[in-house]
Specification:
Queuine tRNA-ribosyltransferase, TIM Barrel, zinc, tRNA_ribo_trans-like, EC 2.4.2.29, transferase, globular, 379 residues, 14 helices, 3-stranded antiparallel beta sheet, alpha/beta, 19% strand, 8-stranded parallel barrel
């Protein structure tokens, strides 16, 4: 396999790299902007994403399988063509959605049987099905199908689940190799990331990491965090796992993404992040800025003619005031959500650019400490 990830600089354990993909080079550390159904919630277009500095868009295998259907997307040329986005796309495997449908699922060795959250229709998804769906979507990076375990969970169950996830990963790799060799496959260079699981048990996590790196995949993710454990437990798991993952492959912390979490995880060697938080918060008037977080619904912003974040160069802050955006929310105008989501995603993408600059310059630790003081724990 050709070398795709290049480690450009280390500052402590923080890593500055670049990842070559069929759809362009990703500068890391990077935050992936979450577009579950091939769109960012909040009326944000693919053209907007370029303007606010998005490098990677993330879409959801499970949801796109249900609507409009992965075969429909394939018939329309794949996700890139479908949503008019020519930069990298990562698709998750559906494993987390299966986890979230706990009352509607049955896990077997062959895969998972569950019911659609839309109409109750019975669905089966296993490693091969997940790879087939993601191949139809033609994303840049496909995630392996795994079982996401809630925290806390009994050790015996975690051990059995992790062993099954390893077997599933081997099946994912075999199926992806097969799919990438098919003449009708849109993206014959689709990449595969494996997922490390093991709850909060460090020894299980380490053993699993050591097993999955033998498969020589394109990248590795740390999954099953931010699902019930404390931040301290999460950081402890990252500290334990990262040394056992390859230095020449990207490391992705799945679904974790407050600004504080990102700084702490970068300091521990993580490259990729995603989270629905910035878009979800924005849709409810909660915005990130240099002083932490603001709730624009508060009455004190009724006559506030400042932008959300003074000095911010996002399209929202360059053109609109806090008072106007608050009015839009009170009037239930859709523009309110759009402006706040644009700002929050810009804030995250800019944060990652600043992190990369700090690692390049050898001052990441000072940068992190300064940010945490500025935000005062509010972010």
């Amino acid at each position: 396999m050709s070398k795709r990830y290049t480690l450009l600089k280390k500052d402590g354990k923080a890593r500055r790299g670049q990842f070559e993909t069929p759809h362009g080079t990703i500068q890391t550390p990077v935050f992936m902007n979450v577009g579950t159904l091939a769109a960012i919630k909040g009326a944000v277009s693919s053209m907007d994403l370029k303007e606010i500095g998005c490098q990677v868009e993330l879409s959801n295998t499970y949801h796109l399988h249900l609507r409009p259907g992965d075969k429909v997307v394939k018939a329309l040329g794949g996700l890139h063509e479908f949503m008019n986005w020519d930069r990298p796309i990562l698709t998750d495997s559906g494993g987390f959605q299966v986890f979230s449908l706990a009352k509607m699922r049955k896990i077997k060795e062959e895969g998972v049987y569950f019911n659609s959250h839309i109409d109750g229709k019975k669905i089966f998804m296993g490693p091969e099905e997940s790879m087939q769906i993601q191949s139809n979507l033609a994303s840049t990076i496909a995630m392996a199908f795994d079982e996401c375990i809630e925290n806390p969970a009994p050790r015996e169950y975690v051990e059995r689940s992790v062993a099954r996830t390893t077997r599933w990963l081997e099946r994912c790799k075999d199926e992806m190799d097969r799919l990438n060799s098919q003449p009708d496959t849109i993206n014959k260079e689709q990449m595969l990331f494996g997922i490390n699981q093991g709850g909060v048990y460090e020894d299980i996590r380490i053993k699993h990491a050591q097993e999955i790196v033998k498969l020589d995949l394109d990248g590795y993710a740390i999954g099953g965090l931010a699902v019930g454990e404390t931040h301290e437990e999460m950081y402890r798991v990252i500290d334990a796992v990262v040394p056992h993952l390859p230095e020449d492959k990207p490391i992705y912390l799945m679904g974790v993404g407050t600004p504080n979490n990102i700084l702490e995880a970068v300091e521990r060697g993580v490259d990729f992040f995603d989270c629905v938080l910035p878009a979800r918060n924005g849709r409810h008037g909660n915005v990130f800025c240099g002083e932490g977080k603001l709730n624009l619904m508060n009455a004190k912003y009724e006559l506030d003619t400042r932008p959300i974040d003074e000095g911010c160069q996002c399209p929202t802050c360059k053109n609109y005031t806090r008072a106007y955006i608050r009015h839009l929310f009170k009037a239930k105008e859709m523009l309110a959500m759009r402006l706040c989501v644009l700002h929050n995603l810009y804030f995250y993408n800019k944060l990652m650019a600043d992190i990369r600059t700090a690692i390049d310059g050898g001052y990441f630790k000072e940068f992190k400490e300064k940010k945490l003081i500025e935000w005062q724990g509010k972010a």
